[in-house]
Amino acid sequence: DIQMTQSPSTLSASVGDRVTITCRASQGIRNDLGWFQQRPGKAPKRLIYAASTLESGVASRFSGSGSGTHFTLTISSLQPEDFATYYCLQHSGYPRTFGQGTKVEIK
Amino acid sequence: QIHLVQSGGEVKKPGASVKVSCKVSGYTFRDYGISWVRQAPGQGLEWLGWISAQFGNTNYAQKFEGRVTMTRDTSTSTAYMELRSLRSDDTAFYYCARDVDIVTATTTALDYWGQGTLVTVSS
User: What's the gap in Å between the CA of B43 and the closest CA on chain A?
Assistant: First the structure.
């Protein structure tokens, strides 16, 4: 199985900060990676697919990069509505595997 | 508009079974697969398995092999997930999500989600 190691597990930041979350795959997954945002009590919402393509309607302050085994999600200027938990997901094969999640908290 | 609508919450006793449904609309059901994901209270996301809506073949996470069965009804565009021999640590929100199949691009993996179904296992 492909393991996804996501870091950090918690991130404290202020509105306006630039934040970066990292996911590393235990083996190459090309760009078969998505990033998801989950707010409390809600279903996950996909923000980015194919490692770097923004979902329609998602704010341009979100961006993704990477290929192979190293991936990043960057929020260029944190907004109040961005305080949530973020997950990466690899779908290169089965089983699908998620990163452990990163909770973005208000500093 | 694409929607995945799940059945309501369930309370089960240890050892029982639960069957959660996921009715889709807004796209051709047979063209995609469905993955099931769960989230225990305060925990991360855990993938349970996938079913092809077209062919009905499945792929389960090893952890759930022998305890989970995923099926679908193409006449009603509904997918089902049954989990047996429930334990207290199966208490979680269970989500269905659209996933890929043979004819669909990999970029559609888990692009749309249901609202979640809370399954509570308690004696």
Answer: 9
